[in-house]
Amino acid sequence: MRRYFQVFGLFGLLLFLFNGCTKDSGPYYVTPPLDTINGYDTVYFATDVVPIFVEHCWVCHPPNGGLDLGATYAYDNLVGATSVGFPSETRVVPYDPLQSLLWKKIIHSGEFGLDMPPNEVLPTEDLIVIRNWIEQGAQNN
Ligand code: HEC
Hints:
By secondary structure, the protein is mainly α. It has one domain (2-135). The protein is built from six helices and no strands. The protein has helices at residues 2-21, 35-38, 45-56, 74-78, 101-106, 124-135. Helix 3 (45-56) crosses helix 6 (124-135). The longest helix is centred in the first third of the chain and has 20 residues, at 2-21. The site of heme C has 24 residues, from helix 5. Residues 56-57, 59-61, 64-67, 83-86, 91, 101-102, 105-106, 113-114, 116-118, 122 line the site of heme C (HEC).
């Protein structure tokens, strides 16, 4: 069973890398469940998601995009919040990554301005954490 998860994780990684070479074929959506990667299934905003923001985003947020991704304000600035740069978009729609501007930017879909972070793609595991956090209802946990 563990071997199955390892193979599945590798497959996801290959798909992800492949996507980097075929940007024009459209956005890539991460699908494997989180527990195929690191063995737990509840994503915690404070301890799983915020550290990703601190490491990869906080240097620019605040102030870019009117978005503070520091621990104190990140949740209220994301969940159910209307985008500043793209007013038709909601930054995070609970349970629905495909309707969430945050997700569309971090998968480098190219659909809404700069992709995030602008000069790198987040590690696959971080993408999966954020994807699962949104799919689990984007809780403030
Ligand atoms: C090098 C600076 C930089 C880094 C690092 C960065 N961003 Fe951004 N971000 C920007 C700029 C500039 C904008 C505004 C332009 C745009 O949206 O295209 C922006 C806009 C955004 C927006 C849209 C805000 C809105 O409502 O219009 C989101 C969401 C976002 N960033 C998320 C992230 C996340 C998540 C990370 C880390 C994974 C990140 N950014 C890292 C510079 C950065």
